[in-house]
């Protein structure tokens, strides 16, 4: 069969093996159903275009990349990479690429990585990973390799070569428990193509369905480290020591020291679940904010792939079925959806979800006319009673409390805080959604010009599992940043 000239011209420069190129192309054309619809079929020397769709530009780029030379006979891979030091911009959350056809395991690991302050990029196949990375602003610092079909070895090899050329440096491979024969053949293929060995390690432990930090009955005051999840993270941190996070609880914290003196005893969640209706409300608010083209991808990346379809959202009822860490993962999905300004995106999410709740519950919680004639302090007390009471109902246990301070400010305490449950230490306070939620309530009562909301302690800095927000009269909002007021 005579092939069109433009196809022949593109194939001539290929030096890493025409046989391998043909195998990869065959894999693309006959295995990937989502991309196959936009590849031009060549039959009998005639070009028969298929129905166009949004994958066509991506498919063309993949074919172009796969048909590029992998190496030349006169240049070693190391030197060739050195000639193209194309470094993509770094992100605040280190990216890890996870390629695993075992979707259940991939989703468990995605949640652990998300809570450990990584930016997971999840793909079922090497070709799907190729398409993902072409659209990402940065490249992964490591590849977590799960189960892939033996026929995908060539596609993974080409993907890995492309990542090396883009990154300009080695990218370690961290293998999950899998068929050792497939892994051995894959590593042999990589070594053959690159003319050198590739650094890799194997995680021998199974991936648990547990957050890195958990509320456990053995520790009645603070969260503790999950040994199973910590073993997974330690394996990654040994390979990427620059991404290590501390799992140690702070020696001193406001929630354990000052609040205890003030009469608020620390406690941890026992149920570890929240209401279906609340999570559905949060999903709805997130769905309104996140670009539809990103929705499925982001939810799978943070381990919430089972909620991509609205038909699979939890029912609007009061059953307690939602694991606490799912809200933390959704929080990160919202942040990842707008990397240029994640804080503003989280605030918009918190504001929108609160308004959705108030649309249904304000009449039963607050009597607007009565509140108009009350002093601001009594109004704020009524608002905080309603807010914490509603949250305790959502959790099914008393984990949200408030207290008035001697300087006329207020403290709102979230024990086993939902939006950061399970998360490891990070640099900045993370409860932007809570801040926006309280601000939305103040705005509804026209108190936003008199009070300011700040987070004064976050579990992402203390690892206690608990967070504290302060409501202060405007003009005094800086007093809690450096020094805790005297307890009455």
Descriptive key words:
single chain, 488 residues, alpha/beta, Rossmann fold, H-NOX domain, 3 domains, five-stranded parallel β-sheet, four-stranded antiparallel β-sheet, 45% helix, disordered N terminus, disordered C terminus
Helical content (DSSP H or I, runs of 4+): 40-55%
Task: Report the principal-axis shape.
Answer: elongated
- Neighbour order of strands in the largest sheet: 4-3-5-6-7
Overall mean pLDDT score? 80
Low-confidence stretches: 1-59, 69-90, 479-488
CA-atom Rg in angstroms: 26 Å
The number of helices is: 20
How would you name the CATH homologous superfamily of the largest domain? H-NOX domain
What gap, in angstroms, lies between the N and C termini?
Answer: 89 Å
SS strand fraction: 5-15%
Q: Sheet bearing the most strands, described?
A: 5 strands, parallel
Structure in words:
This protein is of the alpha/beta class. The protein has 3 domains: 5-69, no CATH class; 73-246, Rossmann fold (3-Layer(aba) Sandwich), CATH 3.40.50.2300; 258-482, Alpha-Beta Complex (H-NOX domain). It is built from 20 helices and 15 strands. The protein has helices at 5-11, 18-31, 33-36, 56-66, 77-82, 103-115, 126-134, 153-167, 180-194, 227-239, 258-261, 276-289, 292-301, 324-336, 342-365, 368-372, 376-395, 432-444, 459-462, 479-482, and strands spanning 41-43, 46-48, 95-99, 119-123, 142-145, 173-175, 200-202, 213-214, 224-225, 273-275, 320-323, 400-404, 410-414, 451-457, 467-473. It has a 5-stranded parallel sheet with strand order 4-3-5-6-7, with helices on both faces. Strands 12-13-15-14 form a 4-stranded antiparallel sheet. Helix 7 (126-134) runs parallel beside helix 8 (153-167), helix 8 crosses helix 9 (180-194) and helix 15 (342-365) packs across helix 18. The radius of gyration is 26 Å and the shape is elongated. It starts with a helix and ends in a 6-residue tail after the last helix. Residues 1-59, 69-90 and 479-488 have low confidence and may be disordered.
